[in-house]
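Write out a record, focusing on structure:
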Amino acid sequence: MSSPKRSVSFSLGATAVGVLALVLFGGAALAATRNVEVGQGGGLNFVDAVSHTSTSNINVGDTVMWTWDGGFHSTTSGTCSGGCSRDGIWDSGEQGTPFSFSQTFNAAGTFPYYCTVHGASMTGTVVVSQAGTPPVANFTCSPSAPVMGATVSFTDTSSGAPTSWSWNFGDPASGSSNTATVQNPTHVFQAADTYTVSLTAANASGSNTATRPVTVSAGGGVPCAQNDQTLCLNGGRFEVTADWTKADSSSGRGTGVKLTDDSGYFWFFANTNVELVAKVLNACSFADAYWVFSAGLTDVGVSLTARDTQTGVVYSYVNPTGTVYVTQAATSAFPTSCP
């Protein structure tokens, strides 16, 4: 006698359902809908739900859904460069709340749009990329010559419709502020230095990383530029050089070798012969000043110069040709130079 037939039932988890959907639809990725808020909080703005800016980065086949939050507005395809003009791709018409309007994008490209009620004061952009392509990371920073203690703004300029961002400012001393995951972050560098900043931009198809150096100065008119003849001391705030003159009137500039953040030495004629040692000491905790110490192992003429790039104040000491260099302790070199 044959066995009775059994009824079998089962359920699919979320992952299995997703895999089944891909199989049923021939492996094609499902299109997505991006939400954009119109007039958020009563303002003259278009606010993308992912980027939180007026730019929507999507893939071919995706749909943008505009939903009115407040006010009387439109979403009208076209540009306001040199005067607003429609291009006929889409136009919601002028509407008040509540209202929603959608547009599906079936081709890659950049599509600007605006509100016909408010013109150039209320614009947005839809950037459509071919699905399956990782982004190409890129970014800019402002100001281009930042100073320590000031806010630096970083702007994501990546192509390829990234949906997530991972920043590292190369500034571990800033603790948890050294990283960020928003699209356009800010950061404050507390010390003058050159930092390696990186951005990893990612979407469903992969990720890409861009790095670039960001040089932060101590402020003032001209930042210290480290080179073979210049010592940049105390976080780059002080620029120190040493010029030499021989008895035959020949002259030149010494080669500087940094020892610590506040000290270094110079050689004049051979790198095996140290001629001068210099130090800019931070005495702010007890003297409200920076001090300059120097000691020489030479009797050639020496002109030692230290410039405070934050205030522009210059300290100099001249040792005459033919005179053994006298050790200097210049406690009045940079008076009241502390914050």
